[in-house]
Design goal:
Blueprint lengths: L8 H11 L10 H6 L2 H8 L15 H8 L3 E6 L1 H9 L5 H7 L5 E5 L3 H5 L1 H12 L3 E2 L3 E4 L5 E5 L3 H13 L18 E6 L4 E2 L5 E2 L6 H12 L3 E6 L11 E4 L3 H11 L5 E4 L6 E3 L18 E3 L3 H9 L6 E8 L4 H11 L3 E6 L11 E8 L4 E8 H12 L5
Parallel strand pairs: 1-2, 2-3, 6-9, 6-11, 9-10, 11-14, 14-15
Antiparallel strand pairs: 4-5, 7-8, 12-13, 15-16, 16-17
The protein binds cytidine-5'-triphosphate.
């Protein structure tokens, strides 16, 4: 880590790397320490954070970390450190480590737009790229001090994706050092979002599901090597890299799409909030105020999840994961639902708690298994909750 306001985001990157199975040593430059303390990273990695070439000299720390690392990630990377790397300077622990390393290097530049556009920075970046360094970003957006423009560090997910790519590529000496891809060779069918049940050409009955939880699961599964089909109700969210997206609108559409794709799935993860009922008929023309208040008769929708379980019968595939959006008491209701639905795993969350669940970036869930085991996942980003769900699911696929 080098000295930039984006240093705080490195904590999330480190957490994601550890969740993916990496062992992470953090080196902070003096500048990085001005922005964020080392204790955060020692807590996350369980290892000492280093900054000083003059510590542990007999251990050869100034070169040892670089010699042994499978990859170096510099996040964020200042213009100054990029300049030093381009010129082979080695006046601190980060740069001695980089010079002693012959494996992949990923840098995520972060600086003001003027510094990014400066010919000196451009020339240094060209040198680094020519040497095989992977440069991720920068992105555009707000910068320190109220400015905005190109120079913002990319999000940790982009660095993870770049790192997976460089590590998956065979090294020049033929050795392969791969990040764990425990879902390689598996196919997951994931549903997401809230279905829309049409009343007339302009109106629908819907729900508050944003699709974020299902998208996070699809993204994490793809990063871990799975082939992912994501059947989603209308959502503004971007399709995660490498995921095959199938857009649907109503519960009926979702049912049809799931039937089409379930045959190839090792697991079906039903994160969608599917409407249980739909208007009996969709009016062909718009209902007008002058028509007076309508009476809407509802009829039952298919239970998509129950259909998957019924068609599978006693067969081993697909393993089915259900979700339960509860309000209030979780455990008893969730246990009952797990049994009633005949799923292998049930993910329950309390949607009445503000800040988690519907429309939120975070979630907190209780994961129940059929054999009575359970795991409580306290409030965390949906990306981390997705990783916890996938970690619980993986052993069920064997
Ligand atoms: N589900 C489904 N099709 C429906 C309704 C729900 O596939 N028509 C799936 C959801 O994707 C989720 C789980 O079933 O995985 C949610 O079930 P639950 O919350 O129990 O909804 P209901 O079955 O509607 O139960 P209830 O309304 O009694 O709580």
């Amino acid at each position: 880590m080098t000295g930039g306001i984006a240093a705080y985001k490195a904590a999330l990157l480190v957490r994601r790397l550890i969740a993916a199975g990496a062992i992470v040593d953090v080196i902070m430059t003096r500048g990085a320490r001005e922005f964020i303390g080392p204790v955060t990273f020692e807590g996350l990695t369980g290892r000492n954070v280093r900054s000083d070439v003059w510590e542990d000299v007999p251990d050869g720390t100034h070169v040892a970390l670089g010699q042994h690392a499978a990859a170096i990630v510099i996040y964020p990377a200042t213009a100054h450190t990029l300049a030093k790397l381009a010129n082979g300077l080695a006046d601190d622990l980060l740069t001695t480590t980089a010079l002693a390393h012959d494996g992949p290097v990923v840098v995520a530049p972060a600086m003001h737009t003027e510094m990014w556009s400066h010919p000196a920075t451009s020339a240094n970046l060209s040198t680094l790229r020519a040497r095989g360094v992977t440069v991720v970003g920068p992105a555009s957006g707000p910068l320190m001090g109220g400015d905005s423009g190109t120079g913002r560090v990319v999000e940790p997910e982009e660095v993870l994706a770049a790192l997976r790519d460089v590590l998956a590529a065979p090294a020049p000496d033929g050795d392969e050092v791969a990040m764990p891809r425990p879902y390689a060779g598996r196919t997951l069918l994931v549903t997401a979002g809230g279905t829309r049940e049409a009343l007339d050409p302009v109106r629908f009955l819907g729900n508050r599901s944003s699709g974020r939880m299902g998208f996070a699961i699809a993204q994490a599964a793809a990063q871990q090597g799975a082939t992912v089909v994501l059947v989603t109700a209308p959502s503004e969210l971007a399709t995660p890299p490498g995921v095959r997206r199938v857009d649907v609108v109503s519960a009926d559409d979702m049912d049809a799409a799931v039937r089409l794709h379930e045959g190839v799935a090792d697991a079906v993860v039903m994160a969608a909030a599917v409407a249980d009922f739909r208007p009996e008929a969709q009016l062909p023309t718009k209902w007008r105020r002058t028509d007076g208040p309508p009476t809407i008769r509802l009829v039952a929708n298919p239970d998509v999840l129950a259909g998957v379980v019924a068609r599978r019968g006693d067969g081993p595939r697909p393993v089915v994961v259900g979700f339960a959006a509860q309000t209030g008491e979780l455990e008893t209701a969730a246990r009952e639902k797990l049994a009633a639905k005949g799923v292998e795993m049930l993910v329950a969350n309390d949607v009445s708690v503000p800040g988690i669940g519907f429309e939120s970036r975070d979630n907190a869930v209780l994961i129940l298994h059929r054999d009575g085991r359970q795991r409580d996942v306290p409030t965390a980003s949906k990306a981390l909750v997705a990783e916890a769900i996938l970690a619980e699911l993986l052993p069920l696929l064997d």
